[in-house]
Amino acid sequence: MLLRLPGTYPAQGDTRLLTDTLARLGYARGRSVLDVCTGGGAVALAAVRAGARRVTAVDLSHRAVLTARANALLARARVRVWRGDLFEPVQDERFDLVLANPPYVPAETDRLPRHHPGRSWDAGVDGRALLDRICAGAHRVLVPGGRLLLVQSTLSGEEATLSHLRSRGMTAAVAARAPEPFGPVMSARAELLRSRGLLRADQEHEELVVVEARLPVPSGAAARGFGRVV
């Protein structure tokens, strides 16, 4: 059971899909791992359990950082937790694996909450305020051959994520998908999403996907021992 301060994103279906995919693929073992939008640190701790050599976690929220640090202490896990905006605190470092469970729920406006629980899920009108930034910047903090695992809803544009990552020179595909019943946030947002044509009239679930992307190894360089190529 993880500690959770009020206003910190709880581990939910998207967290489980990402951590289950991480465990199945085995990419963390012996590797350096970065977890962005860490929330309470559930994904970072899953990387530790999966055998990561070094784990760093980042979140913009003060409460999330405090919660993640507390959970790492309680788990006796070595996790560096920094407060900052996505890759900014680690811009001079490189990692074998980046994990991300960012806010991705389409909202009424593009104004992102700053001091409200909604900052954990609201992501602009199209749900891509954080997704696009992660797609644009992940390659800068990955070693050659490094990988990104990112979880999102298909309501926020699965193909847009794949296209954006490929435009940055990465190979990308869906590694896992699963239906997720609407929770309180999505139930409250359902009429708005139906009005935009994103949901059927009778739809009460969304589909979650884990997108896997890989930064190619330069021609002539030795691969770093990762498993399959996306």
Question: Could you walk me through the main structural features you see in this protein, from its secondary elements to its overall organization?
Answer:
Its EC number is 2.1.1.297. One of its GO terms (molecular function) is nucleic acid binding. With 230 residues, the protein is α/β, with parallel strands linked by helices. The chain has a single domain (13-214), classed as 3-Layer(aba) Sandwich (Rossmann fold), CATH 3.40.50. The chain is 27% helix and 24% strand. It has helices at 13-25, 42-49, 62-74, 131-137, 158-167, 184-195; strands spanning 32-36, 54-59, 79-83, 95-100, 142-153, 171-181, 205-214. Strands 3-2-1-4-5-7-6 form a 7-stranded mixed beta sheet. The longest helix has 13 residues, at 13-25.
Q: Regarding CATH, which class?
A: Alpha Beta
Query: Which runs of at least 5 residues are low in confidence (pLDDT < 50)?
Result: 223-230
Q: Would you list the SSEs in sequence order as H and E?
A: HEHEHEEHEHEHE
Distance between the termini: 34 Å
Mean pLDDT: 90
Strand order of the largest sheet: 3-2-1-4-5-7-6
Radius of gyration computed on alpha carbons: 17 Å
Estimated helix fraction? 25-40%
What is the number of independent domains?
Answer: 1
- What CATH architecture do you see? 3-Layer(aba) Sandwich
Reported by name, the CATH topology is Rossmann fold
CATH superfamily: Vaccinia Virus protein VP39
Q: What's the story with the biggest beta sheet?
A: 7 strands, mixed
How many strand elements? 7
Q: Which structural category fits the helices and strands?
A: alpha/beta
Which geometry do the CA atoms define? globular
